[in-house]
Amino acid sequence: MRRSLLALSLGLLLLASAPMRAEDLVYVRFQDYVEALRTQIGIPGLAAAIVGRSDVLWEHGFGSQDIARSMPMRPDTPMHLDGLTQVFTATTVLRCVEENRLSLDEAIGIYKKDAPEPGATIRNLLTHTSGTAPNLSFNYRPDRLDSLAAAVKACTTDSYRETEANTLERLAMVNSVPGPDVLTLVPPAEGIPTPDERVAYATVLDRLAVPYAVDGARRAFQSQFSASTLSASTGLISTVHDYAQFDLALRNGVLVGQDTLVNSWRPQVDGTGKLLPHAIGWFVQNYNGEPVVWQFGTGVDAGSSSIVVMLPSRGLSLVMMANSTGIAKSFALEKGDVTTSPFARIFLSLFTR
Questions:
Q1: 102 Cβ contact partners less than 8 Å away, ≥ 6 residues apart
Q2: Helix, strand, coil percentages in the chain from 3-state DSSP, rounded to 5
Q3: Cβ neighbours of 56 (radius 10 Å)
Q4: N or C end: fewer C-beta atoms under 10 angstroms in the chain?
């Protein structure tokens, strides 16, 4: 029955008075695939956008942001970014490097003496590597980036929270919040919002998607988000539409220079000459000969997941966020192969033809 309904809908579109362009059909196909996958995996709600070189080309909400209240998911529904927070961290650090305020090869212990790995370089942390060039090894652990908050403060003279709040404001990411606990901060905490910011953040947090855990029978139960505060590895809250503004600013040289960005997408190499799967802030790999730059986030147990997949040579990015772990949790993305995600695989298949 579902296939019949989808076929009928597509047929009606094809018979419309205004002929549908080939690129429009690709978005219709992608939308249908995403909805089918969402239902199959049991994701309560999901929002997605495809971003071009200068604008959002397509965006859509699927399922529910709040099942109990029958509220549909929307591209402007706020959700936790989890591991995508580290993309903001990497971008801030790269800007500091451009300004000669930080060096990627400095030990993090210079800025945070009690760091768990004081001898690890800033480059090590952002690339999820350990050791030096002859014996470099990869292990994806986002929490290692948390020490970078001290380096960011040394560069910007603002706390990490204040720095990222400034980024959100600069890019007019009006439905984004620098941490789920921002309204409960009291002195001597850093980054306490102004009265106007409190009102704006409260409005966003009131619309936050309800987090869910999903059992083996694809039944959703209200859960909680994993992140309770903001760190350099997790805790930012945003929407698909807002993140698209960050993506455009990043790829168009607003946040860092193009040379810096391209160099940051070069993978690390171990002692045998093998390319490691992670660059500075991003996973990198090839798909049918094309470079793919990507990153993901997911809650520890339940509540949220996200993924961003960029095709730099085509000027395209896919942004997806969900109110369960279904986008990322079961696909072993931490090993460095984005094609294990069926969502990413469909995007790459349709948009690299």
A1: 93, 96, 122, 151, 154, 155
A2: 40, 20, 40
A3: 18
A4: N
What are the structure tokens assigned to 115, written together? 């760091």
* Phi-psi category of residue 85: left, alpha or beta, with phi > 0 → left and psi -120 to 50 → alpha: alpha
pLDDT at residue 4 is higher than 50: no
- As given in the structure block, the two tokens for residue 317 are 């990015």
Tens digit of each residue's pLDDT (9 = 90 or more) over 265-287: 999 999 889 999 999 999 999 99
pLDDT tens string 25-41: 999 999 999 999 999 99
| Contacts of residue 35, Cβ cutoff 8 Å, sequence gap at least 6 | 62
Q: 225 — alpha (psi -120 to 50), left (phi > 0) or beta?
A: beta
Given its phi and psi angles, is residue 338 left (phi above 0), alpha (psi -120 to 50 degrees) or beta?
alpha
The residue behind tokens 């099942």 is 67
> Which residues make Cβ contacts (< 8 Å) with residue 70, sequence separation at least 6?
64
Helices (H), 141-206: 148-156, 160-170, 195-206
| d(C-alpha 260, C-alpha 17), whole Å | 47
Strands, E assignment, the chain: 45-51, 56-66, 71-72, 79-80, 129-130, 137-138, 212-214, 220-222, 237-238, 283-287, 290-298, 305-311, 316-322
| Amino acid type, 319 | V
User: What radius of gyration do the chain's Cα atoms show?
Assistant: 20
pLDDT of residue 164: 98
Topology of domain 2-351, CATH: Beta-lactamase (3.40.710)
